[in-house]
Structure formats: structure tokens, C-alpha cells
Specification:
This protein is of the alpha/beta class and about 375 residues long. The chain is built from twelve helices and four strands, in the order ββαβαβαααααααααα.
């Protein structure tokens, strides 16, 4: 096997670079530095490949890189004596080399900053209008499904309920139990200073039933199920399966979005209730261990001092959280553009936006119920 070699000769009409041997990737290390040291000179350059036996992709890239570098220096480069197979490979490699464009540094100063701020505000406005439009389409499809329930896709709905609901029961129950334990432990530390340990029951029940149970459940569902919705539907968007649905006359909102949103509407209140019960159990257990509040006393004080509205307030929030999580997750999936990177970016945005909106809606509900005296 003849190793690759190169010889540079000068002439009146320009320089000639003679290449010879087998330009294979495994043996290019012997000539790579000499290729890198070649410079433009003053005249045109002809690359004679008549004595080249074999060229693979690595060798073709080395030759293309040399040609591109010399041409960037203003040198006219010509390939001569090239076999047809070698020329075809070199042309293919040249076409596949990406054009590198440097990133322009962002302009500094007040005016460019205001310009970027304006573009951000306009983009946020367009996104808000798009989300509201998507919400309207989803609610219209939901109303249509409730009026004509036989049009709902039962198999898809049950599958989504299993993925988003039943499989989330262990983590939701564990979260609720630990929240109850933490509330009881931290509350006991403070209440013992005033000899009011028994009021830990009200602290646990009101905190868990009104706020923490359903709020943390919604956050877990947003991170677990919302991200899964965006990733799965976004992958379908990348593979053009959604376009294929439209070609077949199927509405992606009814086929993909409605079962997921409806599954969350059904399962999130159930998961919230499970989290509430697990939180009360964890709080009762820690109160018994740490404060000596017996289970009987805990249940008695729970019945006497915890109003039904504490539970109702949390359950009322659940459908709103479900719609927000489902719509945001599916809307982000429909915004995926062309690559798996976009799927990852949209999945991250879906989780962040869903959690933010869940917390914001919870705050608005808290203000509303406080004003109503509930």
C-alpha cells in the first residue's frame, strides 16, 4: 500500500501540486501538517491527482478543505487528472461542508435595547393571541364532545387517563404524605413555644386542603404529564404525522389535544384528593409521634374545625389547573419546528409556562376567595 504524498512544483503558468498514493483516512496523518502549511502564493494552483490510487471521505475532505482555504485567499485552484469516481466523491463532500457564518454581536446602547424589548413585547403578544386561539379551539372541541359523547375517542382517553393519572398516583401520594409530615414537624416546633400543639391539626388540614395538596399535585402533573404531552405530540409534528392527519381529514385538536385535556380534567381532581388524604395521614402520623396527638383527637378536631369549603376550595381549582396544563403542553407541541432540538426547547418551555400559570391562577383564586370570605 502506497502512503499518500504531495509534491509542489512551480512553473511559469502557476504552481502544480502533485498528489500520489492512497488518500485514506487512516493514513492522512502523515500529510495533514503539510497540507495545513500550504499557502496561496502569487499565482493559480493546479492540483494534479492523476497518480492518486484511492480516495475516501477523509481524503476528499482534506482536498476540499485545502481548495476552500486557498480560494478564500484569492488563489484560483483547479483539479486536473481526476478520475470520475474521485471527482464525484470530492463534489459530494464539498457540497456537504456547511458554510460557516459568524454570529454578529448584538448592538449595544439604549436604542438597540428598546428595539429588542419591543420585539419581545410583540412576540409575547403574538404568543398570547395564539394560545387564546388554541384554547378556544380546544374548548369548542370539548363542548362538541360533551354534546355528542359518541364522537369522543374512548380508547385514547382511557390510555391518557392511565398515563397521566393512574401512573402518577404513587408519586402524588408520596408527595402529599411528605408534605403532611413536614407541616406537622415544622408546625410543632413553633406551636410548642406557646403550648398550642393541638392547633397543629388546623394548620395541617387548612394548608393541605386549601392550597398545598392541589397546587403541588398540579406542579407534579405539569412536570410529568405536561412534558410528556409536549414531547410526544412534538415528535409527531417533526415526523409530519400531524400534517398527514389533516390530509386524511382528521382534526388534530380532536384526535390529539382533546383526549389529553379531558384526561387531565378527570384525573387531576382525583390526584388532588389523593394528595390531600395522604397529606392528612402524614400530618396525623407525625402529630402522634412528635406531639402525642392521638389519631382519635386528630380526627375529632379535623371534623369540628375544618369546614367543607376548605376541601371545596382546593377541588374548585383543579379543573382550571388541568385545562391550563393540557392546553399549554399541546400548544407548545404544535409550535415545534423541524428538529429534535426544537422538541426539547418546547418541552422545557411547556413545563416552565405551565408551572408559572398554575401558581398565578392559584394566587388569583386565593385573592378571590379571600374577598368572598370563603
Amino acid at each position: 500500500m502506497s502512503a499518500p504524498s504531495l509534491t509542489l512544483e512551480g512553473s511559469d503558468s502557476g504552481a502544480v501540486l502533485h498528489l500520489a498514493g492512497r488518500f485514506l483516512t487512516r493514513s492522512l496523518g502523515t500529510v495533514e501538517k503539510r497540507f495545513a502549511d500550504l499557502s496561496g502564493g502569487t499565482g493559480p494552483l493546479r492540483i494534479d491527482m492523476s497518480e492518486v490510487d484511492v480516495v475516501d471521505t477523509g481524503g476528499a475532505w482534506l482536498i476540499c478543505d485545502l481548495m476552500a482555504r486557498l480560494q478564500a485567499e484569492g488563489v484560483a485552484v483547479e483539479l486536473v487528472g481526476v478520475k470520475d469516481a474521485h471527482r464525484a466523491l470530492i463534489d459530494t463532500v464539498r457540497d456537504a461542508i456547511p458554510e460557516e457564518h459568524g454570529e454578529e454581536e448584538a448592538a449595544r446602547g439604549l436604542v438597540p435595547w428598546l428595539e429588542r424589548l419591543g420585539k419581545g413585547v410583540v412576540g409575547a403578544g403574538k404568543d398570547t393571541a395564539s394560545i387564546l386561539s388554541f384554547l378556544g379551539q380546544t374548548l369548542a372541541a370539548l363542548a362538541k364532545g360533551l354534546v355528542r359523547p359518541w364522537t369522543l375517542r374512548g380508547a385514547s382517553l382511557v390510555s391518557q387517563m392511565d398515563d397521566a393519572g393512574f401512573k402518577a398516583v404513587p408519586i402524588v401520594a408520596l408527595m402529599g404524605f411528605l408534605i403532611g409530615v413536614v407541616l406537622a414537624f415544622q408546625g410543632a416546633t413553633q406551636l410548642q413555644q406557646f403550648g398550642a400543639e393541638v392547633f397543629v391539626v388546623e394548620l395541617i388540614s387548612i394548608s393541605v386542603l386549601r392550597e398545598l395538596g392541589i397546587l403541588l399535585t398540579a406542579i407534579i402533573v405539569a412536570g410529568r404529564s405536561g412534558s410528556a404531552f409536549t414531547a410526544s405530540v412534538g415528535s409527531m409534528k417533526v415526523q409530519e404525522e400531524i400534517d398527514a392527519m389533516r390530509t386524511l381529514g382528521l382534526d388534530p385538536i380532536e384526535v390529539l389535544v382533546l383526549p389529553r385535556v379531558l384526561a387531565l380534567l378527570i384525573m387531576l381532581p382525583i390526584l388532588g384528593f389523593i394528595a390531600n388524604m395522604a397529606g392528612l395521614f402524614g400530618g396525623a402520623l407525625m402529630s402522634w409521634i412528635n406531639l402525642g396527638v392521638s389519631p382519635g383527637m386528630f380526627i375529632t378536631r379535623l371534623q369540628e374545625n375544618t369546614d367543607f369549603w376548605h376541601l371545596a376550595v382546593g377541588m374548585i381549582k383543579a379543573p382550571f389547573f388541568a385545562v391550563v396544563i393540557g392546553v399549554i403542553a399541546c400548544w407548545q407541541a404544535f409550535q415545534v419546528r423541524g428538529s429534535s432540538t426544537s422538541v426539547g426547547q418546547r418541552t422545557t418551555a411547556s413545563v416552565v409556562q405551565s408551572i408559572f400559570l398554575v401558581i398565578a391562577i392559584d394566587a388569583l383564586f386565593s385573592i378571590f376567595f379571600a374577598e368572598m370570605g370563603i
